[in-house]
Amino acid sequence: MKHVIVLGAQVPFTSGGAEIHVNSLVYEINKLDNIKAELVQLPFKWYPEIQMINDIMAWRLLDLSESNGIKIDLVIASKFPTYAVRHENKALWLIHQHRTIYDLENTEYDCWGCEPDTKVIRDKIRELDQKFFQECKCIFTNGRTTAKRIKKYNGFNGEPLFPPPKLADQIHPGDLPLL
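^ that's the sequence the OP posted. Answer follows.
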């Protein structure tokens, strides 16, 4: 039996596409023979800016090599800062980086700039992202736009891997109507 950990960063009291993505991934992996998957999440808070460095360190300090004497064969990171985790067999299916540091910087959606060390913190996070991406055995993205972003801002190739529709198992071929 192989053991897989899917990693999710959870903003408490919120739920959206990323949460659906990681939960669906665990569900689909567990349908396979001889593989058991579990979701491991840590809370995520992006403010004040220095808190993001703390969140990165929390992921980095986790030991996911084994649990309760069971070897963890693979970890699949999903979004910032889950990919900071240290593991010998780390894959990334990138939903997104922390976009305020990249493509939303200096736009109306840029919520930073008030803190005195904003530039230092952003530069450190960008530096760490580079390191963590290099550690990944493979990098997939949830779509072409995310692949373009990771290439543009980090120089990494991410292969778009589209998650299956939630109701994929209910889609069946049918007859074409006569025109």
